[in-house]
Specification:
The structure holds two protein chains of two kinds. Helix content of chain A is 20%, strand content 40%. Chain A is built from three helices and six strands. The longest helix of chain A has 18 residues. Chain B has 15 helices and 20 strands. In chain B, helix 2 packs across helix 15 and helix 10 packs across helix 12. The chains are: A alpha+beta, B alpha+beta.
């Protein structure tokens, strides 16, 4: 399967009035509600079979270093199978970290959609702010990240074929990432 | 804090005052008596393979540059400009021949030597007013490397690292020396947990008892075939000098069979066989134990585990992985976890990838084992801050009868150093807190003053003449 690459600094995003942008934006909004309500089986349905889901480890490096993610290490580096195992775990009665479940809110904004060399694929950039609250006496936590998604049309429906979520903190201020970005 | 001597006495008999997991006075004692005097792991040599490579790490609030200088030696230097105290290096990793202070431009080579001082002549009258010669960033008071593991100690009179590690080196090797060239690491992932640092350290040292309960879900989804209650209690718990760990009992077989059972490919087993001592190999071949989690006092823990990375296949194929982590205290109630993936340098690439995958699925910030651990530890820490916790002594006497005799005798024919027991027991958690109590009781000694430009000798990197 071809993997589309888009140089967002050179390419022009689709106008907001373009139906493809609107479809992509709607996909992200619908996905957010699914993630917020932790309907993870439904979420898996939104992913292509060859999904690549990555959350690199962000690092503090000099401007001249030419990199700002950890070489070789990620928080998530998943395929469909490993994501489905994570989902299966939440469905057991013994995934303590999410039982009682966190209260989640995925805020998605600054959405830009780019066409790609492949007709059925759209490249979508967005900003994510995730709010997570657990229990009644802990401070809530936030994750801020940029998402770069590849959406592919399969049987008339958009699906997520690739996601790279680049977190804005080098030290995650959350007890774990038992959630999806 | 309640009375110190009472607290230590309680800890030594295995009754743990709950408040030690959330008490700012206790944390202050730990800072001065323990962290300023203990060997603390900072980095692995493979993180800085080439001259100029550096990482920046901390011991509590003290920032250190860990760099490889132009001659290939590892240097650990206090990350503070000698002039006005600015943090010299503000990135966490990279490659640099020099570090230049952003405040007034003093610059230092990557071995720490001061080489640049703007307007030296005009401002100081040159060497006469301020002699650059021999000035260098403060080196870590004590530094040493064992099998690629770079440790520092803020106490220059600390006993040597090798002596501190003692016979625990036998077990360290099993994690970081599976071939002559040793290990390489990836990471660390870094995240903050609202948990006291001791809880994670104790857990990794010896808590095989939590596995069947806390980690039940990963067995249910087929990620791990081992930690059912009956399996876990057949493993041995060992405590040896400054560290302790847990093991699993493996099915019958030879040394090679058993390494193969946990997923090592033939070529890796060949190298392991060449590298480990006969005594190390007997732990597996004769005793039938495979290392699992371990902690070296105070804050360095390891995990060795062998998940079914892909359970779609019907066979029982597993892939082993190793992780190493530091529980770096932020406060009495918060810990930064730095978690590395560890793999033998000579392992085949496909093994490295599968093992890395296994690590991500099981441990670290997203790991399905570790996720449930921190949920417990955060709750403990929160509750330990209240007034009821000041009255509660937690029972940490598992494995002991009321007369302090062990429930079952130590293993007589265990080939590893130290003392080992089979079955559940909190021997190692008590071992760790015994070390902790020793540290807290040690009297403080004045640390050496290091003054710049005075007559006091400033320790200088070797060959330090500019």
């Amino acid at each position: 399967m071809a993997v589309s690459e888009v140089d967002t600094s050179r390419s022009k995003p689709l106008p907001f009035t373009d139906i493809r942008h609107q479809e992509a934006h709607q996909f992200l909004v619908e996905e957010s509600y699914i993630l917020d309500s932790q309907r993870y089986d439904d979420w898996l349905e939104l992913l292509t079979e060859d999904i690549s889901y990555k959350v690199p480890v962000r690092v503090t490096s000099a401007r001249s270093a030419g990199f700002d993610t950890s070489p070789g290490m990620a928080h998530f580096d998943e395929d469909k199978y490993s994501l489905s195992l994570r989902v299966a775990r939440f469905a057991t009665e013994h995934a303590w970290t999410e039982d009682p479940p966190s209260r989640l809110r995925h805020f998605i904004t600054n959405v830009r959609t780019f066409s790609t060399d492949v007709d059925d694929e759209l490249f979508v950039q967005s900003a994510l702010l995730l709010f997570r609250s657990r229990g009644d006496n802990r401070e809530p936590n936030f994750v801020s990240a940029m998402r770069e998604d590849l959406l592919r049309r399969e049987d008339g429906m958009l699906k997520l074929a690739r996601r790279v979520a680049i977190m804005d903190e080098s030290v995650v201020r959350m007890q774990n990432l038992a959630i999806f970005l | 804090m309640n009375d110190l001597s009472q607290m230590l006495e309680d800890v030594r008999r295995g009754m743990i005052p709950a408040y030690i997991y959330n008490d700012s006075d206790v944390f202050q004692l730990e800072k001065e008596h323990l962290f300023e005097r203990s060997w603390i792991f900072l980095a692995h040599e493979s993180e800085i393979p080439d001259p100029g490579d550096y990482v920046v790490r901390r011991v509590l609030e003290d920032s250190f540059i860990v760099s490889r200088d132009e001659s290939g030696d590892v240097r650990v230097m206090f990350n503070m400009c000698l002039h006005r105290g600015m943090q010299i290096c503000r990135a966490e990793l990279g490659n640099a021949s020099h570090f230049r202070c952003s405040y007034h431009g003093w610059s230092y080579r990557n071995d720490g030597r001061l080489v640049g001082l703007p307007f030296h002549q005009e401002a100081y009258g040159g060497e006469d007013g301020f002699s650059k010669k021999g000035q260098a960033l403060l080196p870590a008071p004590a530094m040493d490397i064992y099998n690629g593991l770079i440790f520092v100690n803020l106490d220059p009179r600390a006993r040597p690292l090798l002596e501190f590690l003692g016979e625990f080196r036998y077990y360290l090797d099993l994690y970081v020396k599976q071939s002559a060239e040793g290990a390489e690491v990836r990471g660390p992932q870094r995240w903050r947990v609202k948990s006291n640092w001791k809880i994670g350290a104790e857990n990794a040292a010896g808590d095989s008892y939590h596995t069947p309960q806390t980690h039940r879900s990963v067995v249910e989804i087929g990620l791990f075939r081992e930690p059912t209650g009956s399996k876990r209690k057949e493993g041995a718990l060992y405590w040896c000098d400054k560290g302790g760990g847990t093991t699993y009992k493996l099915p019958p077989g030879s040394f090679r069979d058993r390494l193969s059972y946990v997923g090592y490919p033939e070529e890796m087993i060949d190298r392991i066989e060449e590298t480990w001592s006969p005594q190390q190999k007997r732990l597996i071949s004769d005793d039938g134990f495979m290392i699992s989690a371990a902690t070296l006092f105070p804050t360095l823990s390891f995990v060795h585990n062998w998940p079914k990375v892909d359970a779609r296949a019907d066979d029982d194929r597993v892939v082993p992985f190793i992780t190493m982590r530091v529980w770096q205290p932020i406060s009495a109630t918060e810990t930064e976890v730095l978690s590395w993936f560890v793999v033998d340098k000579n392992a085949p690439d496909e093994f490295k990838e599968a093992s890395y995958k296994g690590y991500l699925m099981c441990f670290g910030s997203t790991g399905m084992f570790e996720q449930d651990d921190v949920e417990n530890w955060v709750s403990i820490t929160t509750l330990a801050g209240g007034s009821m916790a000041k009255r509660l002594l937690l029972n940490s006497r598992m494995g002991l009868l009321s007369n302090d005799k062990p429930v079952s005798e130590p293993l007589a024919d265990f080939h590893g150093p130290g003392t080992a027991y089979v079955g559940y027991g909190e021997f190692n958690q008590r071992g760790l807190l015994r070390e902790w109590a020793e540290c807290l009781e040690r009297p403080l000694k004045d640390l050496e003053q290091i003054a710049l430009g005075s007559k006091m000798p400033n320790r200088m990197p070797e060959g330090g003449d500019v």
